[in-house]
Amino acid sequence: MQREYLENKNKMNFTFEQNKEDFIVDEMPLHFKGNGNFAIVHVKKVEMTTWDMIAAFAQFLNINAEKIGYAGLKDKHATTTQYISIEAKYEKQLKKFKHPQIKILSATRHTHSIRMGDLAGNRFSINLFGVSQIEAGQIEKLARKSEKNGLPNYFGYQRFGRDEDSIEQARAMIEGNLHVEDAKLKKFLISIYQSFYFNNWLKERVLLSREENGAKFMLLEGDVYLSNEEKLFTPKKIPQNDFDAHKVVPTGLLPGRGVYRARDAARAIEEKYDDEFLYDKGLRRVALVFAKDIKFDYKNNFDILNISFTLPKGAYATVFLENIANKNFKAKVVKQKSGRKKN
């Protein structure tokens, strides 16, 4: 599925590589109380999935992996930091934990286990290669523009598998043509199915905005918004001023049961990407996200631009880069490499 962006400008030909040196992700946590029955462990992992990291802790502590809490999944081909929670009674054992790809950075206490989504956002630091001095200026300008106007909150290529064929498995399972016993895999395939519909809905809204609203996201009657107070609502009048001030953000549908659906003109588009017969719980996801604290470091002698930025939880750094480049990246192309000459 092609992801479209608000500005249909010329494509930029920089590259980036997902590896431990050039793709760094730091989880930004919510506040921990410093006391309670759970140990909150700040962990750095290298070239490893979150699930594999949790499995390593579970095996060492001889506990079920489900007893280890985490807020989100982090990239495999990267250096990442994140927080996990374990019952405090295992703190002494954790002091003896050693793993070649995992390092415990610190620990504190909290009153409950970390749950999925218990994070403020993620901070990224990514090296872009093949960037001339002029292009570095263009990239900064485009990044600042998306900081102000927002960028489409697509699910990135990582969501759909290396060959982007997981949506076919998900559809076959939901239509009853594929039996899946593993509960975790079943949940994952349903999320892919929902994500696919969301991305297609967002693509249509982006194209409409490009054609009719000067490359700024176009609000419609009946849109469902998320407020700064994390409340969903459909106003009687389009809240353009509040949207411009980043006080409210329109949302798109992840189809399923028990979810608030759009109305009027917004629903006319949304219903094309809905599955009202899907039994699993539906959700809404913000259509736009706003990057913050964008910084640049240009290594002129090597045509390398380091860009660092913060995104809210659930947003993809690769989508931020696609928005700047005005082209789609694929897992097959963004390969793990090493040995580049760096300053």
Question: Quick one: overall form?
Answer: globular
Instruction: Give the SSE string.
Output: EEHEEHEEHEHHEEHEHEEEEH
Rounded radius of gyration (Å) = 21 Å
Q: Kindly state the mean pLDDT as a whole number?
A: 92
Distance between the termini: 37 Å
Q: What is the CATH topology descriptor of the domain at 154-286?
A: Pseudouridine synthase
CATH architecture of the domain at 154-286: 2-Layer Sandwich
Helix content: 25-40%
Quick one: biggest sheet? 8 strands, mixed
Unreliable stretches, pLDDT < 50, 5 or more residues? none
**What is the CATH superfamily of the domain at 154-286?**
TruD, insertion domain
The CATH class of the domain at 154-286 is Alpha Beta
Q: Would you report the number of β strands?
A: 14
Q: Tell me the number of helical segments per DSSP (H or I, 4 or more residues long).
A: 8
Strand composition percent: 15-25%
Textual characterization of the structure:
With 343 residues, the chain is of the alpha+beta class. Among the domains are: 31-117, Pseudouridine synthase (2-Layer Sandwich); 154-286, TruD, insertion domain (Pseudouridine synthase), CATH 3.30.2340. Helix content is 27%, strand content 24%. The protein has eight helices and 14 strands. It has helices spanning 50-61, 91-94, 133-149, 166-174, 183-212, 240-244, 264-270, 317-325; strands at 23-29, 38-46, 69-70, 79-87, 102-110, 119-129, 151-152, 225-227, 232-233, 248-254, 283-286, 288-289, 292-299, 304-312. Strands 1, 2, 3, 4, 5, 6, 13 and 14 form an eight-stranded mixed β-sheet that branches. The protein has a four-stranded antiparallel β-sheet with strand order 9-8-10-11. It has a two-stranded antiparallel ribbon with strand order 7-12. Strand 3 (69-70) and strand 4 form a beta hairpin. Helix 3 (133-149) packs across helix 8 and helix 4 (166-174) crosses helix 5 (183-212). The radius of gyration is 21 Å and the shape is globular.
